[in-house]
Amino acid sequence: FAIAITLLVLELKVPEHVPAEGLAALVPELLPKFLGHVISFIVLGIYWVGQHNMFLHIKRHDRVLLWLNNLFLLSVASMPFFAGLVTHYADDRTALVAYAANLVAAGLVLGAIWRYATTGRRLVAADLADDMVAFVQRRVLLAPALYAVSIVVALFSPLAARLIFVVVALLYIVPNPLDHFHHRE
């Protein structure tokens, strides 16, 4: 995660040539790239927090879990590439679809990790509450569901698709009543 987040910043380049009007003239060009960087940083942070919270409950591991986690990390490690596409080609539908598809994949694999670990209480405590298992599964799968919606939306409105990315980030950053359930457990 740390490396992927660090690589995101490499897409941000300091302008080599400043126009006569000064740096302020470059703000319309630089701001979307910076915002894309911030959103991608937040998205990776959300996935890190989600994985961390899941692994607080996963007490054991096996080969399948490790390979599912590697698949998840593939999506994470690929994020700088897809974020670069979106920051360079913010209105390109293909770039937005590819970015969202990578996030859908990351979320689905994270959901698969949880499902695998909790089915039959395979890798979690035997007394882990069913409500907790269901809560985490719903919470994990909300993001990929919304990112899948953004794929369809991107075909019609790139701006609306980008707004969905912001909404998803806010849904996971801003504390909500459902999170209190998790903290009680």
Count of DSSP H/I helices = 7
Strand content: under 5%
Order of helices and strands: HHHHHHH
Percent in helix: over 70%
Low-confidence stretches: none
C-alpha end-to-end distance: 26 Å
Structure, described:
The protein is mainly alpha-helical and 185 residues long. 75% of the residues lie in helices and 0% in strands. The protein has seven helices and no strands. Helix 2 (27-57) packs antiparallel against helix 3 (63-88) and helix 3 (63-88) runs antiparallel to helix 4 (93-118). The protein is elongated and about 65 Å long.
Layout of SSEs?
Layout: H1 2-8, H2 27-57, H3 63-88, H4 93-118, H5 130-154, H6 158-173, H7 177-184
Helix pairs in contact: 1-3, 2-3, 2-4, 2-6, 3-4, 4-5, 5-6
